[in-house]
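Hello K.,

You asked for the raw outputs rather than the summary table, so here they are, unedited. I folded two proteins back to back in the same session to keep the settings identical. This is the first:
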Amino acid sequence: MPYEQAHAPIYGYMKGWKHTIPLHLVHYARTFSIFKVLNTLKLGKVLNVGGADGYHSYLLERLFNADVTTLDTNNHALSVANKRYGLKIKHGSALDIPYPDDEFDTVLCIETIEHIEDSERVVFELLRVARNHLLISTESFFDSEEQKQAFLCYIRETHPQFFRSNNPIKSGDVAYFTLRDFDRLLDGRPFKIFAQFSNKHMEVLGNIAEIRRHVQAMTSNLTPSKKTKIILHCPLSNCESNPSPLTEEALLESIVADSPFFPIKIDEEMRREDEENISRIEHWHSEKAYAITVPAGSTPILTIDEHGARGMSLSWLTTENLERSPMFCTRRVTIEPQGHTPERATPWEHQLHILTGQALLVEPGRTTTLSPGDTIHIEPNHIFQIHNETENRLIYLDIIPSISTLFGR
């Protein structure tokens, strides 16, 4: 069949960049961690809820000889899963799984639950059809409710692309979880959590043995936390262990592949894409040895339409992803005459430096005039607002911690 955009590196490491969603290492590491847990269980009859184009279902069949059905709402993805791998497929929603109670020995829900708003209904349905094991994985995990709310506040201000264009209040991932949330959703049933991975890297270069070593390092000796993402296993009944588990090396070699997962002719287009991607990664790694220059005018100017803002725009000068600053991000903020920022109190600090124009720093009970060259340190959770009450443009730097520094993302 023709190439399809795959939800995992099914074409092998860096084979066909346009056809496999980027961040191969993340997909490899997550899958390896999940399958290490599955490798300890007697799976029986399996339902993969939100199984998309069949990547994990195929591995379950191939590695464990499991009887797997892939459930999804996307008919095209299901068609790909069936045609590519010959998988059993079923159209249906996690909110109303079209099977009777206790139909499956093991139910999987991999990186799906965070995309569905009614997580309580999803978990109810997953438990209803599962007889022995329920396994859920998600990146949307936090150590506390306070941290979860701080994360939503942070991405709303700093990563608007994560939010839906028709509803800026709801992010693309609409559900976020803590241990307390899962305890409530599972109605007090016992469960264990495992780490997915750490040390998220763009990509690495080397032969497939080196890639496997890197994936193994990303998934070893981890404590589950906000920085590792999590896999949850809820044992229900008759939880026999796998009588003949595979070795960790066999799992790793099967999952982290340098060739396609199914017969396909790698043509010139795919080879060219692979060469272009390797060249790009080589350049990215080579530049890490040098200081980073962000040329003037090279970053786009974004108009801020947030409630409470007036005449406000900004440019990201350094960000974690593009300019490799893992500790902090720098924004150049422009306030037009008679404009102002929203009044805010964020759970992270701000360091402001006035470049041109005069500003008023408005705090509860105090207003301070700021001039070019002034620097301001604003503590976390402190209410403030910047006003420009002059007829000239105000420009200043706003330096904040990176998303990795605060949340391990």
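The second followed immediately with the same parameters:
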Amino acid sequence: MKKVICVAAAFMMVAGVATVASAAVDLSGDARARIRYNDSGIGDSVNKWDSRVRVKVNATTEGGGYVKARVRFLDGTWGTGGDYTASAKGDYNVWSDYAFLGFKVGNVDIAGGKMPIAFSPWFLDDERADRFRVLYKQGGLALAFTYDKKIYEYNQLYQTVTWDAVDSDGNLVVLETNATYDTTYEGDKDVWGVTYRQKFSDAFNANVRVVYVADNSVTPDNSGLKGSVNLGMNFGGNNIILEQSYKEGDTVAVGADDQYGGYAEWNTTFGSVTPTVRVGYTMDGFSADETFGWLMIGGDVPTTNIARLGMGGDTIFVGGSSKFQATEKLSFTGNLVFMDIDDDGTAAYGENPIEVSGQAKYKVGAGVSLIARAGYLASDSDVRDDAFSAYGQMEVSF
């Protein structure tokens, strides 16, 4: 509670001195609470409750400087100790998942700190990095040079226990416990990258991300290239996305095969109906980001049972979705997904899992929504039965 009060006081202090410091400070955010049910097809089903509140702080100065941060409150599962200690990121579970600062001079934007590093839902999405970035913008062009510090040194805890006695029941008794830390330097892990984004017209845009991973933190090192090319097109109301990605095998394990994956997406709107079709593939160990997907396969939601497309072996997938806007406030979405996996022995739901899932969303008012989602995953595995998951959520954005 003390930590929450301190954070709230800090917000008020920032807002109070904003005019004095010739700066503008904006607060926004979102919150949710939900109940989750998951029957993964193996073991007992699981019920959980969770909630969180997130507040974004955006401050800008007249001199072109800015600060951006997001603070999260009690982000965890109910019933784990009152103060959510089981999932806490800090004292009483008040923490920040990004905080960085920067300044702009003409078309150049220079920033540093812990910042979001999303490129696309397929290649890399909801992640953070300790980053230094130089960004140039001119018209429809955006060109960024980035440096991410991943690992500086390798730390390992060694614990020594001395047993010197036996109690009346014949059990050993610990008389002395010594803990020491070995901070032997093993090497850095750095990521150097370039991002190119170009909007050629309202009908066509291109996005390219190429990084070199310099990983000397392990022996032998896992250095190599990664990259992705994303194209977006709009013709006569038809929206098309194409993406192709590559990861050099050495970034995973020395001597491993290079990895490839890509997909194509089409969507359009016919009145109150918006259909979407995705087709794609992964091979030689490539897996898509966990946010890419639907409800049972990928998507990074509580109903997810296959975390990433590409897990389990080379994969070909076809997924169809359709959103129906029943009224201004009420909408429904249905998904049907087929996967063909060349099982490498780790495909949890077999070679041909099928997802059938759906969502209902009701907007209670401005910034307030209720969501219900449920999904069924048909399995042809000898280890796991079919899976069923569902959750209900209320959310507020401000």
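The helical segments are 2-17.

Happy to rerun anything if the numbers look odd on your end.

Regards,
P.
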